Input
Amino acid sequence: MIPNTQVQVELRLPDQSYRMLTRVVSFPLPPEMKISHRDWTIVIMPSWYGFGWRVLDESGAAAGESSEHVGDADYALENAQRKVDRLLAERVAREFQAGNPSRGHKAPAPVTPPSMPVSLAPPAAGMTENKSLATIQTSSLAQVGESDGAMEKLAHLARELLGERFQLTRPANEGDAAVILDWLRSGTKAESPKTQREYLRDVCGPTTGFLTFVGAKPLAAVSRQDVQNYRDALKSVVIPATARRAEHSLAASSQIRMLASVKGLLTHANAIGYAPFNPGKGVALPSLPESKRDKALSQSQSMKMLVTAQARAEATETEKRARTRRRDYLLNKLLYLTGGRISEVLALRWSHIYATDKGGEMKIIHGKGRKERVISLPEELLEALREMRADRRAGDEDFVFTSQKGGRLSVSQAWRIVNALAGEANVTKKVSPHTWRHSIATQLLDAGAPLHKVSSFLGHSDPKITVKAYYSESEGLKVEDFIEVE
Output
């Protein structure tokens, strides 16, 4: 039965006076929703004015609620999740300070700046061992045994995310480890193991990690100069050559991410009251020497690569090689026409691709922030994908792009496929799977596609991201079209 609700309406009459009318209408409110977040319960409460929220801790006790009912359910859920993250972070700080009351908000001891530049590389053989730079061999965790300590939990997380061989630079104490864990598990980072993996490497990596650089100094003792020195040191880092890649410097985008990770951790430590101030505040991120537009291929270069890939597939003699070449062609074409990230495209299963009245659609469900988006597929591409599926007799839950052994195609394999194609097509520009995304975004905007539609197509959370990355309103501008020049 739908409950009756009284609705009041204020009318302005012709004589400019007002009259309040009350009517009884049948209009149901949606039911309350209960959502679990970090073992807490979030209750989304609808009202006539919007949505509010209430949070319950692990025991079911009320821990907070919204002061007003506004916006939609997603907005209320986002605010409630932030409240839970903040309450848990404050709990971590209280528990550590209770176990070590001398910590509190006591100002850190003065730190003497180093007399010579600090190297990001590990100490050379024969040098005196630096106890503060002791590392945890994750392969020996089985000998350490189970522990409730944050340090062991952090090492266990490193083993899950980065593998047995990763050497974690040990934080200065249990409190620092607890703060790092809480930071990794807060916000959207908690939903993305890939993001957690990169952030953990940026902070605790054995060669270029921030804690390695500062000698595992306590977070509360880190100074702004430490952060600035780390920013400058990243510019001179040299990555040794491997069998697949020559010696190279850190890309500007990698430097930005690494410093952003450190600044995020320090901001979190200060926000929860663990550190007395935020030393990362005011330290600017490095600037990119080139925009993403500069990394894009022109339309003619894009077509040249796709035509080359198609010709390779058709000219192959053996059937086994032909299947591999057709896969490579469709991988490149799908990356280009959908603007998908390589991780998103390689995660596609056949159930994510389906026919519609206008051709086909592809659902991407592994995007950044766990967002979902649907992208249209040309009918010709959909038919080619169907032929590849029939040839492999693949099921709905099988991956679309697989290796010759039948497993999911890896990112490194995709890189080799794209690079080999660029070389055969005589494209001299540096090319990667992500180049296809840069290319289609730039070409769509240059062709006059609406900005908001391109932003949605790319899966950006805000059109400002698209503008900053790809948009150039001055491209092709001619002064003489607007101003008379004598």
